[in-house]
């Protein structure tokens, strides 16, 4: 079933967008789909938390990049003095760390989504929807 969001999801809510794309449901909607204490409910909660973590990290990264861009714009316009220790020395390290943490959060959310989908897809559908891997013996060697 396709859930039509009542309010649009902000473009910065990358975690929510990944969940909606994969499951056609907002993350918080997953919390009421399964009986409390069930494995499916626990997986749904992992998806929700991973989505929220990604959204938080993505927001931090956007904020830090925006701050650095504003700082550089002021220096370029001559309205602020350049820091003699390096304009981006501190913020670039923070941006790199946030970008790495965001990449890890994306990987974690995708893993949680895959586990949730495997757990909530009926076995009969799983057998039909699984695409076979290419045979290793069919590869030609050079």
Tally of DSSP helical segments: 4
- Tell me, briefly, the overall form: elongated
Structural class by secondary-structure content: mainly alpha
Q: List the helices and strands in order.
A: HHHH
Number of strands: 0
Which residue ranges are poorly predicted, with pLDDT under 50 across at least 5 consecutive positions? Answer: 1-5, 135-142
> Termini separation (Å)?
48 Å
Residue share in β-strands:
under 5%
Would you write up a description of this structure?
62% of the residues lie in helices and 0% in strands. It has 4 helices and no strands. The radius of gyration is 21 Å and the shape is elongated. The termini are far apart.
Task: Give the topology, please.
Layout: H1 14-23, H2 39-77, H3 89-120, H4 123-129
Helix pairs in contact: 1-2, 1-3, 2-3
Q: Can I get a quick summary?
A:
The chain is mainly alpha-helical and 142 residues long.
Keywords:
142 residues; disordered C terminus; 4 helices
